[in-house]
Amino acid sequence: MGFYDDQVLPRITDLALGRPMEQTRARVTTGLSGEVLEIGFGSGRNIPHLPVGVTRLLAVEPAVVGHRLAASRIAAAPFTVEFVGDDGQALLLPDASVDHVLTTWTLCTIPDAEQALREIHRVLRPGGTMHFTEHGHSPRPGVARWQDRLTPGWGRIAGGCHLNRRIDDLIEKSGLTLESVRTYQMGGTARLGFAYEGVASKRIL
After folding, report:
1. Higher-confidence residue: 21 or 125?
2. Could you count the other beta carbons within 10 Å of the beta carbon of residue 53?
3. What number is the average pLDDT over the span 125-138?
4. What percent of the chain has pLDDT over 90?
5. Among the listed residues 119, 106, 121, the one whose alpha carbon sits nearest the alpha carbon of residue 165
6. In what order do the strands lie in the sheet with 177-185?
7. Could you tell me which Pfam families the record lists for this protein (predicted)?
8. Whether the predicted model's global pTM rises above the 0.90 cut
9. Sequence spans of domains, the chain
């Protein structure tokens, strides 16, 4: 990871996904409890929204500066926060070891999102859930064409972010079952962001 991705981009992301996204964070964290794995922990913006039933947060985050930006939020958390790696594609956790997984605007930047979702499926306990809010492919053909055109250049300045991933399809291909998904057009002048927000579960065999 270069200087820009490790030191600069996390600070930009902390601001861009800060106060305007608080209501979204509050919605997506509802229902979490026990041991929660957060992939793409960032600067810890989700910590204040985690319910009282959460007992431990396992954090995966590649940017070192994100750890520092999160320090005050970690100190104020009523549960233990433990960093457990920097790569969502290769989780350093045993099979069926966490109650829930949380991702917020993360799957767009992981190079191999399908592999990351297979890892999520692997570490979730049967009956466990993945709570997510992501952005990706728009069902509007005109918007989708622009997403495809802009993604290569956008990715170079936004940490590998893809505008055009079909989040619901990717989740289902992993073996998880979509329990609920809400989709909506995100704001912004370009209006190229399309949101996927919901819950997926790992079946009990």
Report:
1. 125
2. 12
3. 96
4. 76
5. 106
6. 80-83, 54-60, 34-39, 98-104, 124-136, 194-201, 177-185
7. Methyltransf_11 (PF08241)
8. yes
9. 3-201
Contact call for residues 73 and 22 (beta carbons, < 8 A): no
Q: Do strands 34-39 and 98-104 pair parallel, antiparallel, or not at all (unpaired)?
A: parallel
> What is the number of residues in the chain?
205
Task: Read off the tokens for 16.
Answer: 């861009």
Q: What is the 3-state secondary structure (H, E, C) of the chain?
A: CCHHHHHHHHHHHHHHCCHHHHHHHHHHHCCCCEEEEEECCCCCCCHHHCCCCEEEEEEECCCHHHHHHCHHHHHHCCCEEEECCCCCCCCCCCCCCEEEEEEECCCCCCCCHHHHHHHHHHHEEEEEEEEEEEEECCCCHHHHHHHHHHHHHHHHHCCCCCCCCCHHHHHHHCCCEEEEEEEEECCCCCCCCEEEEEEEECCCC
Both tokens of residue 23? Answer: 């209501």
Q: Are 117 and 94 in contact (CB under 8 A)?
A: no
- Cα–Cα distance, 186 to 192 (Å, whole number): 8
